[in-house]
Write a structure and sequence with these properties.
The structure holds two protein chains of two kinds. Chain A is α/β, with parallel strands linked by helices. In chain A, about 40% of the residues lie in helices and about 20% in strands. Chain A is built from 18 helices and eleven strands. The chains are: A alpha/beta, B alpha+beta. Iron/sulfur cluster (SF4) binds near residues 312, 327, 329, 334 and 351 of chain A.
Chain lengths: ~375, ~80
């Protein structure tokens, strides 16, 4: 296999003489890029832009609010992936702003690392209702579907906030200012859904695209691929992570998603509704659907107030419109210790990744 | 949350298996790979407790090298 040094040299050898913006849509990619310092290794005219790659960041505020209210007001145990516990919602000071605060206020809330843990907690006390607040992209939502398809205990409900990644990229590409010239497609989303999902970038938008893994060598191989495509005018969806990404993805996972969930027009925090971008449980799984079992706490007015916290620019960070350190609060009011917005909370949020990788300088927006 | 890591299967019990990586053991569901004929000793990519794909020994080793570097960098 060719190593990172090989790809770096090849990339430099392409001698691209104009500015090019390459977007990635995966927190894992952004993390490798930042940690390995790839931005400084590649030529100056190639910009690497973190895009919509963080499911925690785009989880609608009203869903987090709903989870907090269910945990506080219903007689349940609420479980969620650890990252979700610190995501803030916009409420008056005396109310719980995060699931973590609701837990401190007495609600029974537990972090989990896997849907199988939710099943175990539900099985341990069949008389107690367990609500699994499940936010995530395809790679995380497929296991939730598998959990339900396999037969979850009756007392386990799901508050689903699953999202598909490609529709956000499609929305950007259909807008007047997509803000990027080439795409690095996510490796593990493609592992589950198949790389074919990204073919539209080439067929409909004539933009170069390549699926990448997480090591610097596969990321650089993907960068080389899209730059070469730009240079030659040839277009193809390149798979630079063939060790794991296979045609058609994981067919059982896709089948289960299809069986358990349907795709609908869903809200993204700070972004708005994106067509066909969300998963919700099918009628057949209504008995496990927390949204049908409980009344909704997040009404329409919630959806209007429910954007980002004041001053937080996460939505523009998520859409690749600004870099994290161009937010006015970056590193000042907002740090991983005291995060203001979701992008600083989540391990996959660009603000958090940049801060942990050592970007401390703020930049003004040009 | 989105990060999937390679692990080696040490015990299989129906759709569940025990996996190991870097001395850490985890229970992992094979439900999404139940048609793949996975065996003890195989390496799988594990995401939130579910196997999502089979990987080679080499791919697993190389991924772990990267994670070790990242963890070391983050610990600093
Ligand atoms: S630095 Fe903080 S406040 Fe600014 S966009 Fe990022 S998360 Fe939001």
């Amino acid at each position: 296999m060719k190593d990172a040094a090989h790809w770096l040299e090849a990339l430099r050898g392409l001698d691209i003489d104009r500015p090019v913006r390459i977007m990635n849509v995966c927190g894992g990619h952004e993390r490798s890029i930042s940690m390995a310092g790839l931005r400084t290794a590649i030529p100056d005219n190639i910009e690497l832009i973190p895009g919509p790659g963080c499911p925690v960041c785009i989880c609608p505020e009203e869903d987090v609010y709903e989870a907090i209210q269910i945990a506080l007001n219903e007689d349940v145990t609420l479980v969620a992936f650890g990252d979700m516990l610190r995501v803030p919602v916009n409420v008056p000071k005396r109310e719980s702003r995060t699931l973590e605060q609701a837990k401190a206020a007495g609600a029974d809330i537990r972090p989990i690392a896997s849907p199988t843990e939710a099943v175990r907690i539900a099985n341990a006390d069949p008389n107690r209702t367990v609500v699994f607040f499940a936010a995530g992209f395809e790679t995380t939502t497929a296991p939730v579907a598998a959990m339900l398809a396999e037969g979850a205990p009756d007392n386990l409900l799901v508050l689903l906030s699953g999202r598909l990644t490609w529709p956000a990229v499609a929305m950007l590409l259909e807008s007047e200012t997509p803000g990027f010239d080439a795409l690095i497609a996510p490796g593990h989303v493609s592992t589950v859904m198949g790389p074919e999902e990204w073919q539209f970038v080439i067929d409909q938008h004539h933009l170069p695209a390549a699926v990448a893994g997480f090591r610097p060598d596969t990321l650089l191989a993907a960068m080389y691929s899209v730059l070469e495509q730009l240079k030659t005018g040839r277009r193809c969806l390149d798979n630079c992570y063939p060790e794991v990404v296979r045609p058609g993805g994981n067919s059982i996972a896709r089948q289960q998603l299809e069986e358990v969930m349907e795709v609908y027009d869903a809200n993204w925090r700070g972004v708005g509704v994106i067509p066909k971008s969300g998963f919700r449980l099918r009628e057949a799984y209504a008995a496990h659907d927390a949204r049908r079992v409980f009344r909704s706490y997040a009404d329409e007015s919630r959806k209007r107030v429910g954007e980002m916290p004041p001053g937080c620019d996460c939505a523009r960070v998520v859409l690749g419109k600004i870099y994290p350190n161009q937010c006015r609060l970056y590193g000042l009011a907002c740090t991983p210790r005291k995060p203001i917005g979701p992008c600083m909370v989540s391990d996959e949020g660009a603000c958090r990744i940049w801060w942990s990788s050592g970007y401390r300088e703020r930049q003004s927006v040009a | 949350m989105c990060l999937a890591v390679p692990m080696k299967i040490t015990v299989i019990d129906g759709f569940l298996c025990t996996c190991e990586a870097r001395g850490i053991e985890r229970e992992v569901s094979l439900f999404m790979m139940r048609d793949d004929g996975l065996e003890i000793g195989d390496n799988i990519l594990v995401h939130v407790g579910y196997a999502i794909q089979k990987v080679s020994e080499q791919e697993a080793a190389e991924s772990w090298q990267l994670f070790d570097q990242m963890l070391a960098a983050e610990a600093q």
